[in-house]
């Protein structure tokens, strides 16, 4: 193998590696359109119901406290042919609990499909572990029944109680039933008859919407129109809606994100976007600590002096200033990396960082939206 051929092969391999790395980097910054948008009419519907859970091991509602549980149990037994209305005061069972049942009815669900349900205690039950949900109709906001739930609960929790100690893992008053409800009614939606469909961005942004419209125009045709930062109108123009939306959903775009800093003061969490920029600013952070210590003294009178014992207050004050923190300069156009590095160089904590970000924003040097939660 000649030397020139080896050099040529190395050049080709280097070029191939460069192309592969560049392509992977470009694809790493893109997402599918269907992962950042929702299609008009394709949505879930929330369902809710009220029912009873039985089979609890003494951890259910106390019927003397939960009147609604007792009345529900009596009504259910009466419907089943057991008349205890005249002897309702004798009900002392602790194995029944009133619960609220919730579920999401997925789009395009048909009668006979099964969906998951969540069961939560509505009374003073201490645990739903081991219980069985009785037939519970699930209604939507229009008051119509769309599903019926029933089955054994799984709480993934346990509760152990002793005379002097109690141990609880997870939440024993909330459970889950996989495929616990059967769909009884469909939500009609004929996608095939639509001539126009709106796509909604989950994070509204004009730049992202424009990039989506451009990608659709390049690969499918000029059928997309940006109506606002959230909505894109798709004119099907006689195309098959399912096939068209399938092609559009698999297209790759690079979403744009606004420059935003989100601060959660309760937990001390700070989230900064990659496009956050700051103008030239100097930042200094120091801690002032004031310590007050009370050490009272007991003064004893001399022998046979006739005096009384007295307590003399003595207060020690100690004021300290952290001298290790210095003034730091952040040049104009500093990136998120520069900002974080500069603040870390000051040795500030997340709590102090929140105050610094608020001060930078008040000074007008933070070129981003500061959202406090």
Walk me through the structure:
InterPro entries: Flag_FlgI (IPR001782). The basal body constitutes a major portion of the flagellar organelle and consists of four rings (L,P,S, and M) mounted on a central rod. With 373 residues, this protein is an alpha+beta fold. Helix content is 23%, strand content 34%. The protein has three domains: 139 residues, no CATH class; 64 residues, Alpha-Beta Plaits (2-Layer Sandwich); 112 residues, no CATH class. The chain has a six-stranded antiparallel β-barrel. A four-stranded antiparallel beta sheet has the order 2-11-13-12, with helices on one face. The termini are far apart. About 6% of the residues have low confidence.
Architecture blueprint of SSEs:
Layout: H1 3-28, E1 31-32, E2 37-39, E3 45-54, H2 67-79, E4 97-105, E5 114-121, E6 132-139, E7 145-152, E8 158-161, E9 166-169, E10 174-183, E11 196-201, H3 206-219, E12 224-226, E13 231-235, H4 241-249, E14 252-253, E15 260-264, E16 269-272, E17 277-278, E18 281-283, E19 288-294, E20 297-299, E21 310-312, E22 315-321, E23 328-330, H5 336-345, H6 350-363, E24 366-367, E25 369-372
Parallel strand pairs: 15-25
Antiparallel strand pairs: 1-14, 2-11, 3-4, 3-6, 4-5, 5-10, 6-7, 7-10, 8-9, 11-13, 12-13, 15-16, 17-24, 18-23, 19-22, 20-21
